[in-house]
Write a structure and sequence with these properties.
about 60 residues, SH3 type barrels, mainly beta
């Protein structure tokens, strides 16, 4: 069963981005996710399976 991830959620990953940050914002969901590094604003496309394995913590954006 896939994780319940929504656009705007903030995630913490196990693996760091090359800039040294591991906090990302979800920009797009589906089979592939687009996530944005909070520190350097670089956007990355990553398959759902790879992303779900790398997530350490999810913070919901308040609605």
């Amino acid at each position: 069963m896939p994780m319940d991830l929504k656009v705007g959620d903030i995630i913490e990953t196990r693996k760091n981005h090359p800039c040294g940050n591991n906090i990302f914002e979800i920009m797009r969901t589906g089979m592939d996710f687009r996530i944005k590094c909070i520190k350097c604003n670089k956007q990355i496309w990553i398959p759902r399976v790879k992303l779900e394995k790398r997530i350490k913590k999810v913070e919901r954006k308040e609605e």
